[in-house]
Amino acid sequence: MEPILEIIDRQEWLDKAGEAIQPAVLNAFKAGGKTGKQVKNLLHGKWLGHPVHPMITDIPLGAWTTAAVLDAMELCGSKQYKPGADAAVTIGLAGAAGSAITGITDWTGTTAIERKTGLLHAMLNIGATTLYLTSFFLRKKSRSRTTAIGLSMLGYAITAASAYLGGTLVYNKQVGVNHTAIPEGYPEDFVAVLAESKLKEGKMKRVRAKQVDILLARKNNVIYAIAHTCSHMGGPLSEGELLNDCSVRCPWHQSVFSLEDGSVIDGPATEPQPKFDVRVKDGQIEVKLKSGWV
Question: Largest CB tally within 10 Å, which of 125, 139, 217, 222?
Fold first, then answer.
């Protein structure tokens, strides 16, 4: 796996293409104003609590796997499986469309090697979908049936290669993974993290509670505490922007979280930030993980 990733990382053309395409997609959403933002959050999966893209990819993968099996049986002489194979190809094409639009939306929230790998992943998917679309039309002509099946099989091989890269993005690069999954080190009892006098109005600070980093923020003379590490890609929230509506914007990919309950206000993040109860005792700010997060 590592040699493949190293080869991808050396492809400067992927970097240049990504740098041109990524802002273009983001600007398209921005041009839509409030509606564009709502559509972007919908495609990210904010409403679902985790990315939509991995769910939809199962549709073309499953359908085209079924088509490959039925096509193979047809080539072996079982003609009764022809309608089933054609239907599976059609379903796969519909799923590929949904997978593409959600995938490119998630891709706008990646950087560096993730962006390169994601772009190659998308290009392979486009190539496979083109082959399946051509196969779809050729299947309507009996004299082109064998060619149609051959194109589908080639498309399936490319889809498998693309799925490999998709798995690499998730399992190796942690794209779409919750970076604030609750570890054992989250304090379940109040622990002192900072002198109250050191947290000024309208300011944020990164503090340490046992084994985890926590974001403290004072807004309207109320002290808030949520997990410091952005759930989307691990960005440092203390280096972001404290907004007037008691929320914080991540500096990496612009996800916005409520300081009051840690919920996602704007993506690309889909998972909320763990929230902490706060109290001031003997001049010290103390925090503990809010009940219900464990």
Answer: 125
